[in-house]
Amino acid sequence: MNTPRELFLHELSDMLSAEHIIAGTLGELTSETQHDEIKAAFKEHGTQSKEHIKRLQQAFKAMGEKPEDTTCHAAAGLRQEHEALHEEDPSPEVLEMGNLLGAAKSEHYEIASYTGLVQIARDLGEREVADLLKQNLDEEQAMAKKIVDFTKMTGKEAKQAIREQEKAEKATAAAR
Q1: Helices of type H across 64-91
Q2: CA atoms of 8 and 91, how far apart (whole Å)
Q3: 46 φ, ψ (degrees, to nearest 5)
Q4: How far is CA 116 from CA 38, 113, 119, in A?
Q5: Does residue 23 contact residue 53 with C-beta atoms inside 8 Å?
Q6: What is the topology classification, in CATH, of domain 4-175?
Q7: How far is CA 94 from CA 99, 114, 154, in A?
Q8: How far apart are CA 166 and CA 92, in angstroms?
Q9: Nearest to 140 by CA among 49, 17, 38, 67
Q10: 94-109 burial by CB neighbour count: b if 16+ within 10 A, else e?
Q11: 1, 6, 35, 169: most buried by Cβ count inside 10 Å?
């Protein structure tokens, strides 16, 4: 790898791999969630991820290039974290919170990657490619915002459940 264009094509290939890995994981997250709002958001983002893949393929076509056969090690690592969470046999509530944390990590990785790719595309004079990547970036940023909101919601629910459990324990202790 000797030129900025070669680096760009490599990183573009990496994002194509990442999107494939994340799209697969989103299907699992959708089936694992307890909240209808979160389920709908994960399902919608799975559909968006398929569009991200199409845009990445369009970017390669616009540049007259083909993607490298590569694996995004960051996305694969996040996928392994998801699998490791399952090995801990979490309660449904804890799984939900862990999945949101993992989704936030994925979104921030994608945001950082697309931010850099958009800039390099602009620097290389690839305006059409930059526009395609910017669409992906905007959707990732919107999803990251939703995940923050969902994390706050599930955190409030967890706090309430803890309070209710403490009240029940005090009532049981007082009844003895």
Answers
A1: 73-87
A2: 42
A3: -60, -40
A4: 28, 5, 5
A5: yes
A6: Ferritin (1.20.1260)
A7: 8, 30, 10
A8: 20
A9: 49
A10: ebbbbbbebbbbbbeb
A11: 35
Of 163, 162, 158, 165, nearest to 173 by C-alpha is 165
> For the whole model, what pTM was predicted?
0.90
Exposure pattern of 63-74 as b/e (b: 16+ CB <10 Å)?
Answer: beeebeeeebeb
Q: Is the Cβ–Cβ distance between 118 and 126 less than 8 Å?
A: no
Computed over its alpha carbons, how large is the radius of gyration of the chain?
Answer: 20
How far CA 36 is from CA of 5, 17, 82, 99, in Å, comes to 43, 29, 20, 15
Alpha helices in 33-91 (DSSP H): 36-63, 73-87
Give CA–CA dist 24/28, Å, rounded: 7
Burial track 122-154 (b if 16+ CB lie within 10 A, e otherwise): eeeebeebbebbbebbebbeebbebbeebbeeb
Task: Say which residue the tokens 């969470």 belong to.
Answer: 85
Encoded tokens for 28? 């699992």
Q: Token digits for 94?
A: 């804890």
Residue-wise pLDDT for 7-56, tens only, equals 999 999 999 999 999 999 999 999 999 899 999 999 999 999 999 999 99
